[in-house]
Description:
Layout: E1 2-7, H1 11-20, E2 27-30, E3 47-48, H2 59-78, E4 82-83, E5 87-91, H3 94-110, E6 116-119, H4 120-126, E7 136-140, E8 144-146, H5 148-161, E9 165-167, E10 174-178, E11 181-185, E12 190-198, H6 204-210, E13 218-228, E14 239-242, E15 252-255, E16 261-264, E17 268-269, H7 280-287, E18 300-311, E19 317-322, E20 325-329, H8 335-353, H9 372-375, H10 378-387, E21 394-396, E22 401-402, H11 403-411, H12 419-426, H13 439-450
Parallel strand pairs: 1-2, 1-12, 2-9, 5-14, 12-20
Antiparallel strand pairs: 3-8, 4-8, 5-7, 6-7, 10-11, 11-12, 13-16, 13-17, 13-18, 15-16, 19-20, 21-22
Amino acid sequence: MYDVVIIGAGVVGGMLARTLSAYDLKICILEKENDVAMGASKANSGIVHAGFDAKENSLKAKLNVRGAELMPQIAEELGVKYKNNGSLVVGFNDEDVKTIKELYDRGCKNGVRRLRIIDQDELHELEPNISDKAICALHAPTGAIICPYELTIAAIGNAMDNGAELKLNFEVKKIQEHDGYWEIASDKDTVMSHYVVNAAGQYSDAVAKIIGDNSFTVHPRKGEYILLDKECGGLVSHTVFRTPTAMGKGILVSPTVDGNLLVGPTSEDISDKDETSTTIEGFRKLFDADTVKNIPFNKTITSFCGLRSVGSTGDFIISSIKRGFISAGGIESPGLSASPAIAEEIIDMLGVHGLVLCKKNDYNPYRRTAHWFREASVAAKNATIAQNHAYGRVICRCETVTEGEIIEAIHTNPGARDLDGIKRRTRAQMGRCQGGFCMPAIMRILSRELDIPYESISKSGGGSDVICGRTKETL
């Protein structure tokens, strides 16, 4: 019997699990995929929004500003890369100027600090590669960037280090209410808990419906991205937005915390909650991005697509129709930014529902960064290699990732179990060759460390087999 079961191992579920793990509670996270951070948390812009965009007095506004304030300390504790690079919303005409003034006023009401509207000269001084047609911008110095999947992995790993459990490949099919507890079942397993939090992202409405909650719906909004090589990362220093529309914040151009350049997302409402293909139509929209001059799209190393969970209310949905069961739905942008504050909000609700919160004496909020080896001095690296030769064998040449780091990713909570899991934890396969060189070697390491057949290694869990068999055994 658990005290709290969390359905969904995205950034919201991860932040909640980590925050709850500071208390004397038995916690379990359920995830239907083969790894954590497999939904919106693995494919978004990685922006910690300042908080000027959400409508005043909304949950989005309140939790965005609070979450952004908490994020620097959380990133430091979890060893996650975070950069306070600031953001710019660029205007090109009189209508844009009007929108920027509205965003400034809204941001001030939301409590965003140090907002300014800057003129054309200052804008081009800050960002020389901004389009010559740009006439002004809203400057938000508190805006930042972070790696969304690294944050999620680290939060869940820290929760597990503090006693939380994680069950992967657990797709919730049935939830039954009993006297004082809930029974949650997949096709193969069942768990019981006094309290349940539904943080299932795109499927949060489907999970809510299992217990008879039809108060909200969620639909996917598709966003395609292009990622450029690290040599392009200095094209801009800020996160550069166009003025927003009803469909979102528009196509942005931003550096990433790893030094690449990101362009996207597009915005298209769709019905299929698993549709993440990229399209030529999407690429055309990204190629037309006009806030920044001379984006070198010939330096593209990959493209990807993410789905935002758009709720039916226009705001974050954090609600409960039955005691002991809380749903968090419609957590679209700025959900990443707000995630630490969403965790606080849900914990307050759990307290109202009767959950007793007693702080642990041995809670440890800190986690060693996954990048400790590459960030070490030459002397420290040599000392590590002398103790463990695996750290001296480079497996991924593009990103200079060693065998020791890959082994560590497999055995550190939550351990990688497939190729994409290694990619998100170590950046192996994220360079120019996109795994063309290192993939077979990583598969051998996974096979050896997990003691499973080489041919059973997948890209990202069930249905993503990499090979069909051994060459001399095929007909």
